[in-house]
Amino acid sequence: MKYLLDTHTLIWIAAGSPQLSARIRLLLDQNPAGAFGQAAISLVEFARLGKAGAVGMEPDPIAWMEDLAHRFEILPLTPAIAWRSAALDWAHKDPADRLICATALEHKLTLVTHDKEITRWGGVPVYW
């Protein structure tokens, strides 16, 4: 595994969204699915966004999430990741973003994200 897919990246992949850059489409095409993972916290974000109606997960939200789980390995939340997320030298308070970044750092992965706050911080390798 080389890359960790941020939550919005996973949503855009599932939706076939035009928001996914040509560079990311090429990255996905040129690598096997096993080169990509997702942080466990992304499941919580999917559920929250789906329940709020911000993400279409029809007809079955659980099946929608399971499809992504089968496509890209879920990296579990571990004590090391939890501790690292709390210890990051970053003023950003969003616990999901902190856990995603800590997951990438713990597993030595490049984060595939369009998140400007994460990119601006510069504490994790980013690809977009």
In short:
By secondary structure, this protein is α/β, with parallel strands linked by helices.
Itemize the secondary structure elements and their pairings.
Elements: E1 3-5, H1 7-15, H2 22-30, E2 36-39, H3 41-51, H4 61-71, E3 73-75, H5 79-87, H6 95-106, E4 110-112, H7 116-121, E5 126-127
Parallel strand pairs: 1-2, 1-4, 2-3, 4-5
Question: What does this entry look like structurally?
Answer:
The chain has a single domain (3-127), classed as 5'-nuclease (Rossmann fold, 3-Layer(aba) Sandwich). It is built from 7 helices and 5 strands, in the order βααβααβααβαβ. The chain has a 5-stranded parallel β-sheet. It has helices at 7-15, 22-30, 41-51, 61-71, 79-87, 95-106, 116-121, and strands at residues 3-5, 36-39, 73-75, 110-112, 126-127. It is α/β, with parallel strands linked by helices and 128 residues long.
Strand tally: 5
Please outline the major beta sheet.
5 strands, parallel
Overall spatial form? globular
**Overall mean pLDDT:** 96
The residue ranges in which pLDDT falls below 50 over 5 or more consecutive positions are none
How large is the share of residues in beta strands?
A: 5-15%
Q: What number of domains?
A: 1
| Rg from Cα | 14 Å
CATH structural architecture = 3-Layer(aba) Sandwich
The strands making up the biggest β-sheet line up spatially as 3-2-1-4-5
Please estimate the helix content: 40-55%
Which structural category do the helix and sheet elements fall into?
alpha/beta
How many helices in DSSP terms?
7
Task: Find the CATH topology.
Answer: Rossmann fold
Task: Please give the alpha-carbon distance between the first and last residues.
Answer: 17 Å
The sequence of SSEs as H and E is EHHEHHEHHEHE
CATH superfamily: 5'-nuclease
Name of the level-1 CATH class:
Alpha Beta
